[in-house]
Design goal:
single chain, mainly beta, Leucine-rich repeat, LRR (right-handed beta-alpha superhelix), Immunoglobulin-like, 6-stranded mixed beta sheet, 2 helices
């Protein structure tokens, strides 16, 4: 027996394959414009047979075809410029073990149901094409399959429950499609599964608890869907799990304490959900964890001290929650931590131990309730590159030791109550690209050591009480912070909202201001008609520079906030320009994603837009709008309720400019033409 290998083709012996298999290969060639393939080696070697292809018995030499004995075992035509559809004759290749057609951007149409005839198939790899339609239930007949990759296509419909019959499957990759419906519980039967990637779809419903049966699972990625319900406790019993990615869904409830039973977990990402309750202390039982992201949820309570047991953690993000209390001192025990983000919480104190974290590079404590003196132990963090303490209530002087942070390239201390002079050693920060000291109570001469810094991306020292006499320094400041002088020594300054903000009804935001006078109380008013009429928000509020505000109705694009001295209303300031209060609309959701399609050598880009409407009796019509970069809004389509099918409407926005940024949103109008809702905006 002689093994002949030519290109990507291989065969044992020289016998002809069955006519039905040859017919399938020729059908695949013809239906995918084979004459335009990148490689067609030996497919049409002379002399040609009557069917127009190389003589029977040569199939094992054809590019991408492997023949063993008298049957086709492999088709590997990936990255080969196939254009067209997978023909139904593919079902003739009943001995096929590997079908790899991935990265053919012109491969379109549905996956034929005849794929179910390939009962010996071990690898089915059709990713990064433009396949449409549903996943055929016949795929459940592929009982020998170990790897199924249909990712990065445009597949729709539900994941068929028959997929649970593929008990030998090790990898299931359906990410980056438009699949809908629930995750079938039958997936829990795939006991050999190691990779389950369903992210970037439109899946709904609960995460099935049966996933807890997948004892060999290493990667579970369900993020960026519309999954709801709680995290099933049984996920905590996956002993081989390395990555759990459930972010960007609509999950509710608390984190089950069983999550602490994952002995090999390295990445735990739950951000962008609606999770509540406290962070369970059991999370400290994950010694292998490297990345922990619980941001953008609704967690309350304190950060558990057990977080200090995560000795291998590299990145920790608890931002945009409602955590209270102190940053635990044991956070300093995480000797490998590189990035720590606790911003946008309600935390009140920072422990001195923060200065003993040997490797931390990025530290974001902004938008909290920290008070008192500047936390000087931070100045011991030799590897720090980013420090953001903005929007707190730190007072007193900025320590000279800030100049010891030799690697710092971004420093934001804005919107505090820091006083005294800008320390001269700040000019030692040779790598500094961004410095924001605005909206404090700094005073005195600006040090000319700032002239040592020549890599500015941002410099903002406004809304303090600073001055500069040196001509060279003044010229430097005028170039990098043109309005610095005009914004000094103002008695009362509104800093937020200060024009351009878009705040939704029901959201919580802080009104902030800066005061250089010692009065104790302020009055706060707002207007929804550009100062035509003022509405009282608070009388005699504490003059501490911050007032929490739950955004009220009605919506308006002409809103202002005014702060005044309660004892002397003549001392006042208002927003520099109008901001917007937007209606919060829960009736519509919008998905928009960029796609690329190759038609010969021409690259076409388009956006696929899907609108889901839960229903509004008042809605008369919907406008789908698009904005390119920072340009004007363009109306793409007016849609009426009768055009929706199953509460959904889909369209394509073709021929987009490559590299440009596009923003899509929906506006809802009643029969009288009144705007009654605006969807969230989606950027691609």
């Amino acid at each position: 027996m002689v093994l002949a290998v030519v290109g990507l083709g291989a065969r044992f012996g020289y016998g002809a394959i069955p006519a039905s298999e040859r017919e399938a290969l020729i059908a695949l060639y013809n239906s995918t414009y084979g004459d335009g393939w990148a490689k067609t080696t030996h497919w049409k070697d002379l002399p040609l047979a009557a069917d127009g292809f190389a003589k029977p018995g040569s199939e094992g030499t054809w590019h991408g075809i492997a023949v063993v004995g008298d049957h086709v075992l492999e088709i590997k035509l990936y990255l080969n410029n196939l254009h067209g559809i997978i023909p139904p004759q593919i079902g003739n290749l009943t001995r096929l073990q590997n079908l790899s057609l991935y990265s053919n951007h012109g491969l379109t149409g549905a996956i034929p149901s005849q794929i179910g005839n390939l009962t010996g198939l071990k690898i089915l790899s059709l990713w990064e094409c433009q396949l449409t339609g549903t996943i055929p239930p016949q795929i459940g007949e592929l009982s020998s399959l170990s790897s199924l990759d249909l990712s990065h296509n445009q597949l729709t419909g539900a994941i068929p429950s028959e997929i649970g019959k593929l008990t030998g499957l090790a990898g299931l990759h359906l990410q980056f499609n438009q699949l809908t419906g629930a995750i079938p519980y039958q997936i829990g039967r795939l006991v050999g599964l190691r990779y389950l990637w369903l992210h970037y779809n439109h899946l709904t419903g609960r995460i099935p608890g049966e996933i807890g049966n997948l004892s060999k699972l290493e990667f579970l990625s369900l993020h960026t869907n519309q999954l709801s319900g709680s995290i099933p406790a049984r996920i905590g019993y996956l002993p081989e799990l390395i990555a759990l990615e459930l972010e960007s869904n609509q999950l509710t409830g608390s984190i089950p304490p069983e999550i602490g039973n994952l002995p090999k977990i390295r990445r735990l990402q739950l951000y962008g959900n609606q999770l509540t309750g406290s962070i369970p202390p059991e999370i400290g039982n994950l010694p292998t964890l490297e990345y922990l992201d619980l941001s953008r949820n609704q967690f309350t309570g304190v950060i558990p001290a057990q977080i200090g047991d995560l000795n291998n953690l590299l990145g920790l993000d608890f931002s945009f929650n409602q955590l209270t209390g102190s940053v635990p001192s044991r956070i300093s025990d995480m000797n490998h931590l590189y990035e720590l983000d606790l911003s946008n919480n309600l935390l009140a104190s920072i422990p001195a131990e923060i200065g003993t974290m040997p490797r931390v590079s990025r530290l974001d404590f902004s938008h909290n309730q920290f008070q008192g003196a500047f936390p000087y132990p931070i100045c011991n963090l030799a590897y720090l590159t980013v420090l953001d303490l903005s929007f707190n209530q730190f007072a007193g002087a900025i320590p000279d030791q800030i100049g010891d942070l030799a690697n710092l390239d971004w420093l934001d201390l804005s919107h505090n109550q820091l006083a005294g002079a800008i320390p001269y050693p700040i000019g030692n920060l040779a790598d500094l690209e961004g410095l924001d000291l605005s909206c404090n109570r700094l005073s005195g001469a600006i040090p000319n050591s700032l002239l040592n810094l020549d890599q500015w991306y941002l410099l903002d020292i406004g809304y303090n009480c600073l001055h500069a006499d040196d001509p060279e320094l003044r010229n430097f400041l005028n170039i990098h912070d043109p309005d610095w002088e005009a914004t000094q020594c103002l008695r009362l300054i509104v800093t937020s909202p200060n024009g351009g903000e878009k705040w939704k009804i029901g959201d919580n935001h802080d009104i902030t201001w800066n005061s250089f006078d010692s009065f104790s109380q302020v009055n706060i008013d707002y207007s929804i008609d550009n100062s035509g009429k003022w509405l009282s928000l608070a009388t005699g509020a504490l003059n501490n520079g911050r007032y929490p505000w739950t955004i009220p109705a009605p919506h308006s694009k002409a809103c202002l906030v005014r702060i005044s001295n309660a004892a002397d209303p003549a001392v006042s300031d208002l927003s520099n320009s109008v901001f917007t209060i937007e209606m919060r609309l829960e009736e519509e959701t919008l998905w928009a994603g960029r796609r690329e399609a190759r038609a010969f050598s021409i690259l076409r880009q388009y956006a696929e837009i899907q609108v889901t409407v839960k229903g509004s009796a008042a809605a008369h019509h919907y406008l789908i709008l698009r904005q390119k970069d920072d340009g004007e809004a363009t109306l793409l389509r007016t849609v009426f309720p009768e055009e929706f099918q199953d509460n959904q409407f889909q369209m394509q926005d073709k021929y987009l400019e490559k590299g440009a940024q596009y923003i899509y949103w929906i506006e809802t109008y009643d029969a009288g033409g009144e705007l009654i809702g605006i969807s969230y905006k989606t950027t691609i």
